[in-house]
Write a structure and sequence with these properties.
By secondary structure, the protein is α+β, with helices and mostly antiparallel strands. The protein is 27% helix and 26% strand. The chain has helices at 2-8, 15-18, 170-178, 202-218, 252-268, 284-297, 321-330, 337-342, 362-384; strands at 34-40, 45-57, 64-74, 77-88, 91-103, 113-119, 122-128, 136-144, 147-151, 183-188, 221-223, 273-278, 304-307. Helix 4 (202-218) crosses helix 9. The longest helix is centred in the C-terminal third of the chain and has 23 residues, at 362-384.
């Protein structure tokens, strides 16, 4: 319906009055989705008009609405606005402008990004101070007598601000998928020894925290529960990390079957892009094999699996300087820092491989975590972008 909507809406009725860069944009340009370049004689500068961020939902039984965001990017910043339409037959009727955003010094203060979603026959509009929407002003709308009306958010019934599937109800997941969150991150961690000074759940906690950051940056993704049981070595006799108490290992076939079943579950529920992230180097090849098998089986469906090799931090050691610094940045409660600082340098017999971790710091870890998140977000966007025309 989205393509038909953008082709059918009569922008002539509101474009010149409400489009944030109306003075320089031909009406015909905003009648189709895409990006277009124009010139502003007053500013003596070119700018790009983007018609995108279309979201559809229902504010009343038997009706459909859509939100379209028009944005203009200038060399010194830009401005955007969100508009709501009622879909009727083959066309649409303009209801209201519901949000504005500005960025760049020349456009003044105010929200810098717009986020919208439909849920429980309400339209929630967030006008945010940053792209991750950590600070926001939320407005809730309902459809009353055919008109878009501001309403107070229902107490204790608003959808929580989370990207974790396990913290949502089934109806909230359903509504999130319908609102465009069709990417699911399937994170794999592991329960293994990381020397005497880092807790066994290192990989689980780290991939949970970083997956949340990645999902919020993508803005169209949710995060599945972390898979904590992974291959860690043979049991009889105990090998690799299994030589250290507390480590849990499962056979590679069990691990891969669990990933496949989880991915299939999300595909059944409407997710189109299943992203496999692994925080442990030992099973990266297993993740790649699972993605390849899923894509062969899903070839006739809209769904695809993506193994994101760029997430995993290659070249490092185990419970070493970088590994420990990452945990200090992600969750310092999992590092026995005082004991580590006063200990002799840990060695392989202690379960530590690589550089001396005693100089680990949260500052170093934050830089590593930022790089890891950025690399993953970019890789996921590249992997899923070619599918946009087929969604």
């Amino acid at each position: 319906m989205i393509v038909a909507l953008l082709g059918a809406v009569d922008f002539m009725n509101f474009t010149y009055a409400t489009n944030p860069c109306w003075a320089n944009v031909p009406v015909a340009a905003v009648m189709r989705r895409g990006s277009f370049s124009y010139f502003d004689p007053k500013m003596a500068a070119g700018f790009d008009l983007h018609v995108d961020s279309v979201k559809e939902g229902s504010l009343q039984a038997g009706t459909r609405q859509a939100v379209v965001v028009l944005a203009c990017d200038y060399p010194v910043g830009g401005t955007a606005a969100a508009y709501v339409f009622a879909e009727r037959n083959a066309g649409a009727v303009f209801l209201a402008q519901v949000a504005v955003a500005n960025w760049g010094a020349d456009w003044g203060s105010g929200p810098s990004s717009i986020h919208v979603r439909f849920a429980n026959q309400r339209l929630y509009v967030d006008q945010c101070d940053d792209t991750d929407c950590t600070k926001r002003a939320q407005t809730t709308y309902a459809l009353r007598a055919g008109k878009l009306t501001k309403v107070a958010a229902p107490q204790n019934t608003a959808v929580p601000d989370t990207v974790f599937v396990e913290r949502l109800t089934w109806t909230e997941v359903r509504d999130a998928v319908h609102a465009g969150k069709t990417t699911i991150i399937l994170p794999a961690g592991g329960t293994e020894q990381s020397g005497p000074y880092v807790a066994l759940g290192k990989h689980n906690r780290r991939v949970e925290v970083l997956s949340e950051r990645i999902a919020r940056a993508l803005r169209n993704a949710l995060v599945a529960p972390v898979i904590a049981y992974v291959p860690e070595g043979a049991l009889h006799p105990a090998a690799a990390h299994m030589r250290f108490p507390g480590t849990i290992s499962v056979p590679p076939g069990v691990f891969e079957a669990t990933l496949e079943a989880a991915a299939d579950s999300f595909r059944v529920h409407g997710f189109k892009d299943v992203v496999l992230l692994g925080d442990h180097g030992g099973y990266q090849a297993n993740l790649a094999a699972v993605a390849e098998r899923l894509n062969r089986r899903w070839a006739s469906t809209p769904a695809r699996a993506h193994f994101i090799a760029g997430y995993y931090r290659t070249g490092g050691g185990h419970a070493d300087l970088d590994d420990t610094s990452l945990m200090l940045a992600v969750d310092p409660s999992m590092v026995r820092l005082q004991a580590l600082r006063s200990a002799p340098q840990p060695v392989a017999a202690d379960g530590v491989y690589g550089t001396d971790p005693r100089a680990a710091s949260a500052e170093r870890g934050r830089a590593l975590a930022d790089a890891q998140v950025t690399a993953a977000v970019q890789a996921i966007r590249r992997a899923t972008a070619p599918r946009a025309s087929r969604l």
